[in-house]
Fold:
Amino acid sequence: MGAVEKPVDNKEYRIPGEAKEILKSLASKWEDVADASSLQTLSASDLRNPDMSALIAAKMKEFHGLEMPGPKNISLWDRLRNWLKTAKRLCTPEEAKPFRLDSIEEEISLLEKELSGDWSIGFCHNDLQYGNIMIDEETRVITIIDYEYASYNPIAFDIANHFCEMTADYHTDTPHILDYSKYPGLDERQRFLRVYLSSSGGQPSDNEVEHLLENVEKYKLASHLFWGLWGIISEHVNEIDFDYMEYARQRFEQYWLRKPALLGSLGTTPDVVLADGNYPV
Structure:
């Protein structure tokens, strides 16, 4: 998500201290800079730059291949359920109703079942927005920072989350507003995935690229639920000047709007509309 404080308590998902030290050690090697002043936080527009995007794709592939201590279990589904429980506990009935929180458990189970055949698991960052990516302007070496949400997950989820972050700019007067016209187009997504798959050597087939692309698009739905729930919880525990509920509304809106096309008959949703008529719930 954006460059705002993440208040959700993740104690059960925090990476072990040993893993954190490994990451810090790797980060220092990745930086490989003599002058720290040459490091710059990327901007929102940098993510859409083809050359920069290729560097990010290759670095993401490297990150996903990291070997961390402890079990290599997927954290996504348990984390979603945990955050759902927290959101329902914190929300008033009036707040919960527009988000259909009582139906989200079923949605999580549906996604988990639909995506259960994806065995491409790696060590994921889970929050690869532009504020967590730095570049040495002299060497053009990418460094990934902020490992608060890092865990083992399907790599397609991490990539989907990165694509979703291209719709955000957290350094505007309205940092909570997402612009989905900036979501990468098909050619841009295919180019990113081809670089990602080829960065460790060899050239991926068209079928490999298309298979990963299909999974990424489906995991986009999980990303919307993930940060939608995060937004609802953050509204209740964070005093930062950020419209968390509107941010959450947009993520849930995208979930319901994209679900039918991505899941086919499984994506059928009752035609219920919010009182303000903004989106189907």
User: Anything to note?
Assistant: Strands lie at 39-41, 121-124, 133-136, 142-144, 151-154.
